[in-house]
Amino acid sequence: DSGDFSDASRAGLMNLQSRDYDYDMLENLGLHADKFPTLRPSCAIAGRLTEEAAYHLGLRAGIPVSVGGGNGMCESVGAGVAQDGAYYMSLDTAAWIAGQSKEPFFDPQRRLGHICTLDGRSFSVFGAMRCAGKCVNWAQKLFEVGSPRAFDAAASNIPAGADGLIFLPYLEGERSPVYDEQAQGVFFGMTQQHRREHFLRAVLEGVGCGLSQILDVLRERGEIPDLRIIGGGAKSKVWKQIIADLCEVRLHDVTTLSDSAATLGAAAAAGVGIGLFDSLSQAVSCIAQASVLSPEEETYPAYRALRARYDCLYPALAPVFHQK
User: Does pLDDT of 259 surpass 80?
Assistant: First the structure.
């Protein structure tokens, strides 16, 4: 009978100020609030493991069970982002940039989302891309590239800006900042000089452009010179360097394993719930920044020119995307 703040806010069911359901909205939708579980922080203890559940899991009965949280918010904590003002990037099949804020950032253009933090005290303000690593996997198959390493090697032979070739990474529509399910993927600017390697480079840069658009929206609140980075895409130094250059940001690898961040965040919430830690920030204080990748300023002119053209493409093509 316990629901958590993070999933309720992600689903748009919660009033961010009151930390409770938006009862007026539920009533307008014809939904009965008494059928929804009681909202509690993810760190709260929901109960204890029953005998039956313990038998099936091979665990001891009576173990405290925390309310838990949504995957995205648990991943934020697992990346070590548990203090206001900290930001990180998740680069995987999809991608997003998120930062913790004491107060919500209500964007008049509705380019961002909010998730209540696991302890219920702050908010994760985020912008998400629908396809990131999915674009790379698609291009790897389309252009018959043997491995991710071969993909990176080929892309690294092409200069920044891919000699004018631009990729819009809207293979499944797009979330932030355009929020358009009918947006489509595009290669733009093709000429006879472009080879397979240009297309591979353009895919990496196209995702980087989308992420830089999200970061620009978040930067409307203030400077963001550093981002922690997690996810499978963080294994590619070539791609990380492209993103660092396009976003003009320092990217910090962390000691969290790429596929363990959400699990670690859930464990941190449970640790706070049983009193093992005083706070989420204390629980993840051991997560260190393993290495840092700085942007290469010599790429700025080429990438700023690329971003200027990239930013023009969706507004120009949106009417075509919406034609029936």
Answer: no
